[in-house]
Specification:
The protein has six helices and six strands; from the N terminus they run H-H-E-H-H-E-E-E-E-H-E-H. It is an alpha+beta fold. The protein has two domains: 1-97, Winged helix-like DNA-binding domain superfamily/Winged helix DNA-binding domain (Arc Repressor Mutant, subunit A); 100-158, Dna Ligase, domain 1, CATH 3.30.1490.190. The strands form two sheets. A three-stranded antiparallel beta sheet has the order 1-3-2. A three-stranded mixed beta sheet has the order 5-4-6, with no helix packed on it. Helix 2 (31-42) crosses helix 3, helix 2 packs across helix 4 and helix 3 packs across helix 4. It is flat, with a radius of gyration of 18 Å.
Amino acid sequence: MKGKPSAVAREPDRAEAFRAYIAQQGLRGTRQRMAVYEAARGLAGHYTADELLRKARQIDDTVSRATVYRTLPLLVGCGAVREVDVGRDHTYYLTESGGASFRAQLICERCETIIPVEAPFMEWYGKAVAAKHGMRPVSQRLQVNAICADCQKREARA
């Protein structure tokens, strides 16, 4: 009986998929781009481009801010990273874990805390709505903006 491959065994496949994706875009898998990829894989939770830059420089100190900003759309395009726009002056990113479950984000309007929420209905909903209009879904997102309990308490005291 064949077991599931471990996450360690799947990681080279993910890196090769990223290399293949950037090759399709007519780009090379440079050492710096791959350092940004590795940094993204090593970050947990939501992070900013600046946090990704710091992590990438720990892997390869020649990674520039421009390389991070040019690589992020590639990471998003190949599905390795999800972009989470909270509607403010910066965007957060979340490295995809490869799980099949869809996630939504619950975002506090005041402190920008982001809480991932399992949303298994999204796959069905996306496919159903797209099919109704003769389309094929490519991506989808669900964000709920709210005010967290801590911010509500601070506002009540003010």
